[in-house]
Amino acid sequence: MSDDRFSLLIIGGYGTFGGRLARLLGDQPRLRLLVAGRSLEKADDFVADLRTPKDGAEGLGSNNLGAMVQAVSFDRDGDLTEQLTRLRPHLVVDASGPFQTFGKDAYKVVEACIDLSIDYADIADSTGFVAGVNGLDAAAKAKGTFALSGLSSLPALSFAALNAMAPHFSRIDNVAAGIAPSAHVRIGLNVVRAIATYAGRQVTVLRDGRPAAGRGLIDAMRVTVAPPGVPPLRSRKFLLVDAPDLALLPQHLADLKSSFTGVGTEPQPLQHLLSLAARLVHLRLLPSLLPFARLLQRASHAFAIGEHRGGMFVRVAGVDHAGSKLTAGWHLIAEGDDGPFIPIIGVDALVRRLLTGTRPENGARPAAGELQLADFEAALRRFQITSGIRMENEAPLPLYHRILGSAWERLPPALSALHAGGARVASGRARIERGGGLLARIVAGVIGFPPAGEDVPVTVRFVSDGDREIWTRDFGGKVFRSWQAEGLGRDRHLLAEVFGPFRVLMAPVPDGEKLRLVVRGWRFCGIPLPMFLAPGGDTYEEERDGRFHFHVEIGGRLTGLVVRYTGWLVVEG
């Protein structure tokens, strides 16, 4: 074996998160990866799979393995000193769990590492475990080692996001954070067991600046996860979970009045049933949900319904430096199977920093604030993951600026000029096509769409009316109106456009020189309608030759094409 390799022991290395960490770090030729667990057979199988080239695979875990990977047996209930001495790792990462169930000897692995001057990190999400690691701080410093607990989504990533927003505030009153896993991600049994330990139990939160008793998986808040520039997740309720942030936030923010950490799973009806079961525990009609952990896991796998997207948010409210109320939100959305990599991104960033000679300070402590948001964002670029910050203060902003958040800065000048807000007039030319079907003609007549025509003069007048904009379009003398506003409640962070009895909900998504409008829902007389019947078509705005160009296409499964109008506009004056 090469003595100059950095040796990393991953406990639970073939498990849900440990396996993903091994795949992430497998491209590092300076690493000796020890994939460890109680079953050497399972570890061997995992390593064999990791080494097997994947036909047509690219990127993570394909066939670009540069690290030396070895399967080893490791029993946390065995002789830890003997095992660690034999394996000789520079860093031990505990990716097993659930940490909530480790009992009175919860820190025996940490203590063994410190005694042998081995650095340690974990992805624990247990409040007691993460907060209690401080008790080993003096011993770790004496041995010249570090022990970082909770180097995961909560609290490492959530605190990194919080610290990125904090400079905008003179005082922070409220902090809430939550994770929304994709319904299609297979949740590990240990994760389910961890959640089951506090379902219906008391979870200590902050209310009115004082510790208060929350109810695990019962107390809830509704949030729409919406990073700037991508379609948001569907609005959902987040149920209270016992996360380390709840214990650590009051230590970092002296003026904090309230705190919340939650999980928002899909499908929501299944989450409602889980919350109902938690209420039975709260009422002492059930002793615990822990015996049902495997059943709950199977149910989550069986009802994998909905979009294959997951997300996370951190929301902060308080007062800015001018004394005005301010709310800021950091949002993240992961597409497809990329979401489950997020909990181990912090460890990945730590190891890569260690390989460059950047080392954390010695001592044992929670990993809250250990990494900056930029450290996570650099790692997240390897995935289909989008994140960003939305600032929400009392200063009025144009409608599209409010909805797009920081993505507004990516708009070409012609688009931002048209959506600059206030009263304005734009004029140009258009080409109009109309659908020929009976239902299409009826819909077009109800809304007032113009007839078909070539090179038709068009004028659009924009008038602000409170929080909404009224658009009056004149196509060669044929006038029709609609109004646009930011969605509220479940439709938060979406653009709502109302044509007569129809309300269409869209996500504005910058795409190069274009701003696409992606339909995310619709209503008729306020009644939600099925998405598969929603008006579709390729609708976007773009800058071309310095001018604003539009391409609006409205149609559906039942109607076929209703109308398509394309052309250009120039803002007058």
Structure overview:
With about 575 residues, the protein is of the alpha+beta class. It is elongated and about 85 Å long. α8 packs across α11 (about 295-300). The strands form 4 sheets. Strands 17-18-19-20-21-22-23-25-26-27 form a 10-stranded antiparallel β-barrel. Strands 3-2-1-4-5-6-15 form a 7-stranded parallel β-sheet, with helices on both faces. The protein has a 7-stranded mixed β-sheet with strand order 10-11-12-7-13-14-16, covered by helices on one side. Helices cover about 25% and strands about 35% of the residues. It has 16 helices and 27 strands.
Keywords:
573 residues; alpha+beta; 7-stranded parallel beta sheet; 16 helices; 10-stranded antiparallel beta barrel
Topology at a glance:
Elements lengths: L5 E6 L4 H10 L5 E7 L2 H12 L16 E6 L6 H8 L3 E4 L13 H8 L3 E4 L4 H6 L4 H7 L2 E4 L3 H13 L3 E12 L8 H10 L3 E6 L2 E6 L4 E4 L12 E5 L4 H8 L5 E6 L4 H15 L10 H10 L6 E12 L4 E11 L9 H11 L7 E4 L6 H8 L4 E9 L5 H6 L8 H6 L5 E11 L3 H10 L5 E13 L2 E8 L2 E9 L8 E5 L2 E10 L2 E11 L2 E2 L11 E5 L2 E10 L3 E12 L2
Parallel strand pairs: 1-2, 1-4, 2-3, 4-5, 5-6, 6-15, 7-12
Antiparallel strand pairs: 7-13, 8-9, 10-11, 11-12, 13-14, 14-16, 17-18, 17-27, 18-19, 19-20, 20-21, 21-22, 22-23, 23-24, 23-25, 25-26, 26-27
Helix pairs in contact: 8-11, 12-13
